[in-house]
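User: Just a sanity check before I run the rest of the batch. Below are the structure tokens for the first item. I only need the designed sequence back.
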């Protein structure tokens, strides 16, 4: 599949690297990116060879958020047009958030506005210590609405208030403190740390990882009490899956399961 604003490469292990590839605009969320990211997510979800996805940005930034051309065009739209444009952003984030494969954020540089939304939909995010973050919409008289559901889910209401209301710029260590990123490392160690996370996922059964991710989403939406029967049914499914037979046999036979590198 050809992309104009993305690059997508998958190695022999099934590790896909999805790169926002508009460095001249600091990977701002252009109309092209908004159209191509959901297509890429669908392609990755449908590719049985892909086991882990690493999301990153080309150049100095991860993503500068809203594209200036998009914002200028939105100024001239009527209400219905602006709502339609917002749905494009929402659809892009939903596609990545709902990806059945584990999504690791390699946060190589600044993430603002919609870029923070992209960080928030990752399952694990490792940030270079030089990265900066900000939800700057309120400085423009706007609100971080399209990314709001994912940021609040990631941070919780109290932490979200710390950064969504005041448009402050904060560093990577602060991003880790509030839970936006999993942890921070020196830029020189970023790839090594991302590779460590990749290794953890590759040691796990692919179907089980996807099922565990789906279970987390279900519990988050329905609560623990309402999810007990659902979780029990999904565990029964797992016991009947070929992966569990292989994994348990490998454990007792003191060998690696077939999915482990």
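Assistant: Here's the designed sequence for the first item:
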């Amino acid at each position: 599949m050809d992309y104009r604003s993305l690059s997508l490469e998958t190695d022999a292990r099934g590790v896909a690297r999805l790169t926002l590839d508009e460095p001249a605009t600091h990977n701002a969320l252009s109309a092209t990116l908004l159209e191509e990211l959901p297509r890429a997510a669908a392609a990755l979800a449908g590719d049985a060879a892909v086991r882990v996805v690493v999301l990153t940005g080309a150049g100095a930034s991860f993503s500068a958020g809203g594209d200036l051309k998009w914002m200028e065009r939105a100024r001239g739209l009527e209400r219905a047009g602006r709502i339609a444009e917002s749905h494009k952003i929402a659809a892009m984030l939903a596609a990545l958030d709902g990806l059945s494969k584990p999504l690791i954020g390699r946060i190589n540089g600044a993430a603002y506005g919609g870029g923070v939304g992209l960080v928030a939909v990752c399952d694990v995010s490792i940030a270079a210590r030089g990265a900066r973050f900000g939800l700057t919409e309120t400085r423009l008289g706007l609100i971080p609405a399209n990314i709001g559901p994912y940021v609040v889910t990631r941070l919780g209401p109290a932490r979200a208030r710390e950064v969504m209301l005041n448009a402050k710029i904060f560093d990577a260590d602060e991003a880790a403190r509030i839970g936006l990123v999993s942890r921070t490392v020196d830029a020189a160690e970023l790839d090594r740390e991302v590779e460590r996370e990749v290794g953890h996922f590759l040691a796990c059964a692919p179907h089980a990882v996807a099922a565990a991710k789906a279970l987390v989403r279900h519990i988050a939406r329905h609560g623990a009490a309402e999810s007990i029967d659902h979780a029990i049914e999904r565990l029964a499914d797992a016991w009947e899956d070929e992966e569990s037979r292989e994994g348990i046999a490998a454990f007792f036979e003191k060998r690696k399961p077939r999915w482990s590198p």
